Amino acid sequence: MEIWNFGEPSCKCERCGAIFWYEERTSGRARRMPSFGLCCQQGKVDLPPFREPPAYLTKLLRKDNGKRSKNYMQNIRLYNSMFAFTTMGGKVDTEINNGGGPYVFRMNGQNYHRIGTLLPEGEDKPRWAQLYIYDTENEVKNRINASTSEDKRESIDPHIVEGLKNMLDRNNILAKTFRMARDRFEEGDYHNVRLKLINKRRTDVRRNDMPSATEVVALIVNDTAENRKGRDIIVQYRDTRPRRISEKHRKFMAMQYPLLFPYGEDGYRENIPY
Asked: Is the pTM of this model over 0.85?
């Protein structure tokens, strides 16, 4: 059998800068300046570049930055889970791991995300977004305990957890949003407080600066009506089960993967121009 080796990709789209192999060009004939369409449809799709990550995250992502960076890279999924605002949901197949082979995670149907209440109920320990609001004096310890089993806690560096917490507090609009709710609870006993994450806004943050907190959130006090408009996410005070959030909400991905979206950036949204 003859093996074809194209080498490393060496061509760049002249419109968006995406890297390709020469063989991926749109034209079948040889050209001095090959054209590519798998990226931006030959200039029809114009997406702004990602923002540079915060300095602390950039430092952790450098392979030559010592033991702390190595620890972060080895446990990156755990660190992300500690700061996720939502939890993953779906029908998990628990019968597949009935032998002696490697562990297999299999989910049937659609994957979705759920969000809980603002405060834990009764003696329940805080989890997910509650960790941004409840008992924040012991937040680092609470996050480690809520996201790891006892046999894995030794691999987690509390200094990294503290650094990530401070980084998100400074930069992440979602973290700032839930900290606002925390401040309201500290000011007084506000029962029936709701937090609404707004799906539709006037500005397109892909083209402008990051949104302000007032564009992202509304704090609703003593309103028991179901003020659900479109796909807004309404987080209750207490006494409700976790709710499924719409996969079409702008913050759907940012809430589950805060370390991939350290600023709380918008993900997919409806009516994006072609």
From this structure: no
